[in-house]
Specification:
- This protein is of the alpha/beta class and 298 residues long.
- It has a domain at 2-148 and 185-210 and 272-285: NAD(P)-binding Rossmann-like Domain (Rossmann fold), CATH 3.40.50.
- The protein contains 10 helices and 13 strands.
- The strands form 4 sheets. A 7-stranded parallel β-sheet has the order 3-2-1-4-5-6-11, with helices on both faces. Strands 7-10 form a two-stranded parallel ribbon.
- Helix 1 packs across helix 5, helix 2 packs parallel to helix 3 (123-137) and helix 6 runs parallel beside helix 10 (288-296).
């Protein structure tokens, strides 16, 4: 199958592209000018220069493709550089849907996020929901994926937490650390996308994607510690009454590690039931412990 792929230079996109090529698909990647070198050289890989936020660059880009996988998204806005949730989540999705419809692509696989819902608290989840609504309103054979926290080698989450535990004698934690999530391996997320291409019965469905276990944030830190060979991860729980104003004050600094929106999403948790997704695509999602042992274990 010839597949049109956006977001191929990102963390999830890199793994989806890898698995698509391994499965024998031909892939046409939409890549912003200057990012071509981030992709591998492969006889079944075609690079198309363009930008999902620029409708003009999508003219003819999807012609001859049988399916489109749309992964473009951001976790942090940089308004001064024109990088906003509305632009990257909603406008880009609208552009891809219109281009797919105009150029005869029927199958559309869309990356959303667990927590996406109407009247969501965070702008991230609000715009993810708005993008989903566009997908659902289309006439295409769509499938939506809503992953929980995605982890994997080279991913920002694993790199950041492992670095904190290695370098600091005490790891800071926002609030009580009891907020829970169902972290999912990037390899399992990619398997679901690739499998859906061969399962037309998944059209019209939205799937929550998660690993085999849920954890509190404190429990996740302990799992990292075990993988790094530490008997105990010492934690200091920071009062939210102090931390929320500090985050609000410093979030405009690009180097500051978290924004108010991200803190809101962290505290509300990120749990899901992955069974409908894993059953639909015959997946056996790995746990965070197993994944971290592969990535960090000696």
């Amino acid at each position: 199958m010839r597949v049109f792929l956006t977001g191929s230079t990102g963390f999830v996109g890199h793994e989806v592209l890898k698995q698509l090529l391994e499965a024998g698909h031909s892939v046409r990647c939409l890549v912003r000018p200057g990012s071509e070198k981030k992709l591998p050289s492969h006889p079944q890989l075609e690079i198309r220069s363009g930008d999902a936020t620029d409708p003009a660059s999508l003219g003819g880009a999807l012609e001859g493709c049988e399916a489109a996988i749309h992964l473009v998204g951001i976790i942090r806005e940089l308004p001064a550089r024109g990088i906003t949730f509305a632009k990257l989540h909603v406008e880009a999705t609208r552009n891809l849907l219109e281009a797919a419809h105009a150029q005869g692509v029927r199958r559309f696989l869309h990356m959303s996020a667990n927590g996406s819902r109407e009247n969501a608290v965070s702008a991230y989840h609000q715009t993810k929901w708005q993008a989903e609504e566009l997908v659902r309103a289309s006439t295409l054979d769509w499938t939506i994926f809503r992953p929980s926290l995605i982890f994997g080698a080279g991913g920002e989450f694993v790199t950041m937490i492992a670095s904190l535990i290695r370098k600091l004698p005490v790891v800071p934690v926002f609030g009580d650390g009891r907020y829970r999530m169902t972290p999912v391996a990037v390899e399992d997320v990619a398997k679901g996308f690739v499998a859906a291409l061969q399962q037309p019965e998944s059209a019209g469905q939205a799937y929550h994607c998660g690993g085999s276990k849920s954890y509190s944030y404190d429990e996740m830190l302990d799992a990292f510690g075990q993988a790094l060979g530490k008997e105990k991860v010492c934690k200091i729980h920071q009062p939210l009454l102090l931390m929320k104003p500090l985050v609000s004050l410093l979030e405009s600094v690009p180097a500051f590690p978290i924004t108010s929106s991200q803190l809101t999403m962290l505290l509300e948790g990120n749990e899901c039931d992955p069974k409908p997704w894993s059953d639909a695509f015959d997946l056996d999602p790995i746990s965070l412990e197993e994944g971290l042992q592969r990535i960090l274990g000696s």
